[in-house]
Design goal:
The structure is a homodimer of 357-residue chains.
Chain A: E1 2-7, E2 12-18, E3 36-41, H1 42-57, E4 62-67, H2 76-88, E5 96-101, H3 103-115, E6 121-126, H4 129-134, E7 139-144, E8 147-154, E9 159-163, H5 172-189, H6 191-198, H7 208-228, H8 243-253, H9 260-279, H10 285-294, H11 306-314, E10 324-331, E11 334-340, H12 342-356
Helix pairs in contact in A: 2-3, 5-6, 5-7, 5-9, 8-9, 8-11, 9-10
Function (chains A, B): Catalyzes the conversion of 3-deoxy-D-arabino-heptulosonate 7-phosphate (DAHP) to dehydroquinate (DHQ).
Cofactor (chains A, B): Co(2+); Zn(2+); NAD(+)
Keywords (chains A, B): Amino-acid biosynthesis, Aromatic amino acid biosynthesis, Cobalt, Cytoplasm, Lyase, Metal-binding, NAD, Nucleotide-binding, Zinc
Chain lengths: 357, 357
């Protein structure tokens, strides 16, 4: 069992990663709670629900509510329904919400916790690599039809508990999705770490030791950044490497058509290409392309129109005065935020899409 | 023009009170913004809208959206509509939301600002005494059918600008509503201040000098408390004096049937009565009753059932483990948080209602 402590402006919390945590989850709560609401996605509930619920119920007053799996549950309707459930179950300011499942549940239940009675404790119990990554850093949100995560808060959990036994039940595309963020942590931090990640073969069963080690390293990169810039005023933007185009693709294709990480993978390829142009440097575009391709990331997608993509990129939260900002690399481990005119963006995107296809 | 600076854990902001501020409002913005969305209630828009909008439009990119006056606009539907408007008007993280109107608009637009793109700047421009009071302290929220302010954040404004010229257009019941909070500040802080407030006659036109002085003193009391306990872990609860029963009455009678302050006034009478019993002391129950009565506060109301009231009081955010907490006074200026069993609460409430009628 590995533990990292994250310091925020208001609290500090532990990120615990290890095997067999779910069936001992009561031991990892940072304190005793008078009332707990577990928010779980329906798929995760089917696989691990009883283990967690029974373990907690032996010690605490627990209610459970499930939401349909998938990004479309990050909606205003589910948000309001969960708030109503919290009231129904008499949660008060000393109560706890547990977000149990993928990144969707973490974002949704975290946003509920951040606004229920102006904020109560919540714990992230991720069941995917991606959710483990996104559970660190305190970003919670729901989607608006006009864009991803447009409604939300900066609100840290009081603990993150990641049981890597759940890797066994993780579909291949979810492993790909999560590993895109690990690749990103490599690219924005350190050549050696990046190369180490490219040695992993996602098409065969993962070596838990190696995975845990790489996830730890990735969270270490992220923690160092978010501790310095919790509210994304400056360097936290670096974590959006690959996400400006990635989010736009995800949103335009429709959530569920492509996973978050698969879209970010394409976004990273574009960001590498653009970095080469902007900084007149060589980037490991081909190495990344080959690794993504070998590991069956979808690189040939049915592209939305350029105009729609650019409009969506302008809705990105980094954007100011409708000018698109992207994170590029001066070199590996040296990210930089760059403003792009519509004209420039369009030209590079057209070229990129043409070459990728 | 008077100015007080409030210190929060994250920012400090000025509360500016004076005459003729609305027609110079651009001078009181703490910085330049690329884009401003004014949220205004329909009634206020009719009276002061053009002044403010024209003043700002000369310098800034401004959009305006109005919401129906009244507590029922603090709904999930209006909240979501305003978020959609913010997107529609291309607000980004460097943009500003101005809450222009009564307390409802401050709470609603403030909650929108606190969650739009995980939080953007907002300024409170209150047009009522009550809104001026509630704009200090960073509490923003919407209502749930099951209770007031159950969905919200702690999120300070970047400025509060209160033009007391708006007192001229304030209906008598709104003056009563606001002055209940000033009375409360007296009771929880200082005998002399309390007596000073009871010298005011709300049935004749207010003396602006006296009013501004008393409002300043009230905000001073509040500021001192919220600076020490922003997130209401302990002493901030004192500001809820009169509010536990007050909120329950407001919510059970239906918002709009009785103003917030009128309900709090009855709540304060109950809290004084209970303080006498609990602390075996004498409280200025009669002095307050006479002043409220003389100033036409509705003290004879059509009471909701005791069970419904107690249920609502349990939903109060101070409540823990379904035990009602009330703020009482050991003496004037010495508030204290007290737990009450259902049995005890019921007995005291029945007696209070019988005696008040």
């Amino acid at each position: 069992m590995h533990k990292q402590t994250i310091q925020t402006s208001t609290i500090q919390y532990d990120v615990v990663v290890g095997k067999g945590l779910l069936s001992n989850i009561d031991q990892y709560l940072p304190k005793k709670y008078n009332n707990i609401l577990i928010v779980v996605d329906e798929v995760v509930k089917g696989i691990y629900g009883d283990t967690v619920i029974d373990t907690l119920k032996s010690a605490e007053n627990v209610a459970v509510t499930s939401v349909p799996a998938g990004e479309s549950s990050k909606s205003i309707e589910q948000y309001y329904r969960l708030l109503s459930e919290a009231i129904e179950h008499h949660l008060d300011r000393k109560s706890l919400i547990i977000a149990f499942g993928g990144g969707m549940v973490g974002d949704l239940a975290g946003f509920v916790a951040s606004t229920y009675m102006r904020g109560i404790d919540f714990i992230q119990v991720p069941t995917t690599i991606l959710a483990h990554d996104s559970s660190v850093g305190g970003k919670v949100a729901i989607n608006h039809p006009k864009g991803k995560n447009l409604i939300g808060s900066f609100y840290p959990p009081v603990a993150v508990i990641y049981d890597v036994d759940t890797l066994q039940s993780l579909p291949a595309k979810e492993i790909r999705s999560g590993y895109a963020e690990v690749v990103k942590h490599g690219l924005i931090s350190d050549q050696a770490f990046f190369e180490e990640v490219l040695n992993v073969d996602l098409t065969t069963p993962l070596d838990t030791e190696v995975t845990v080690d790489q996830l730890q390293k990735g969270i270490g990169v992220k923690a160092k950044i978010v501790e310095q810039d919790e509210r994304e005023s400056n360097i936290r933007k670096f974590l959006n490497f690959g996400h400006t185009l990635g989010h736009a693709i995800e949103s335009e294709l429709g959530y569920g058509k492509i996973t978050h990480g698969e879209a970010v993978a394409i976004g990273m390829l574009f960001a590498l290409k653009l970095s080469e142009e902007k900084f007149n440097t060589r980037m490991p575009y081909k190495a990344l392309y080959d690794w993504l391709s070998k590991n069956q990331y979808p690189l040939s997608i049915s592209w939305p129109g350029i105009n729609q993509l650019i409009d969506k990129m302008k809705l990105d939260k980094k954007s100011e005065n409708s000018i698109v900002q992207m994170v590029l690399l001066e070199e590996i481990g040296k990210p930089s935020v760059v403003n792009l005119s519509d004209h420039e963006l369009r030209a590079h995107l057209e070229k990129f899409i043409r070459e990728l296809d």
